[in-house]
Amino acid sequence: MTAEQQQQLDELGFVVLPAWMSPALLEELRMQLDAVSAAEGGRAGSEFKIEPHTRRLANLVEKGEVFRRILSMPEILEYVRSVLGDDFKLSSLNARAPNPHSEWIQPLHCDGAAVADERGFWVCNVIWMLDDFTVENGAPRAIPGSHRWRKLPQEALADPMAPHPGEVLITAPAGSVAVINTHAWHGGTANRSPNPRRCLHAFYTRWDKPQQQFQRDLLSDETKRHLSPELRRLLAIDDEYNAQVTLADPGRSGFLKGIRGSVSRDNLPAVSPTP
Ligand SMILES: O=C(O)CCC(=O)C(=O)O
Question: Which one of 126, 171, 201 would you pick to mutate in the ligand 1 pocket, going by the greatest count of ligand atoms within 8 A of its CB?
Fold first, then answer.
């Protein structure tokens, strides 16, 4: 990470790595995503949530070696680490493609309704762009600097769907990767183009917070058997503390989740956290 990229992530709350993927990796990700999407048909995304006018796929760690491969790429994890600190885990790996010819825009939100706490930031999303992200096809908008406000847009704004005077669009060519401190206010915009706009969301969270999708239970034994020790750790498969905070979390849903208190370690039976 260059000093300039570090500064962008710190000050704006996001950084874009243009055309970061090799053409071969980009092609492999697209092919696997389209294959999963075709195989799942109308069931797609059912493990997580349905979003209007949007094609979503969930639990992708289970659904392709190439998806597992991108999760632990050291160059990308360096950016995640600079947001979350040394101890973090994957919260979920999903895909999102706003439908073509749509006016649907997401409300400005912080992922998981997360507000930075006394330990600092705890959510970070890595967007793997599988198509060009343009002004016409639903590139996400973000409000630079808002990750430091410790406020949720739904509390501060009369209409979180309305244009915001501070917003910028995150546009970039296919194959780019955006790392977003998702305490920053952000959201997808309308895809008015004739084509889908595909991406993956590799969503990471700090070690002490619940996973959005509980990897230990969602993954098959076969997939778990073949995980490297590093991936087992990143997915918190053997982390009893993660199991407790995640299973105790009543509101595992998604970006529109309401406001709730974070799970307190003090309310849980004694187990040693495994940071
Ligand atoms: O895919 C995008 O454009 C961003 C979507 C987003 O922020 C979300 O689904 O939480």
Answer: 201
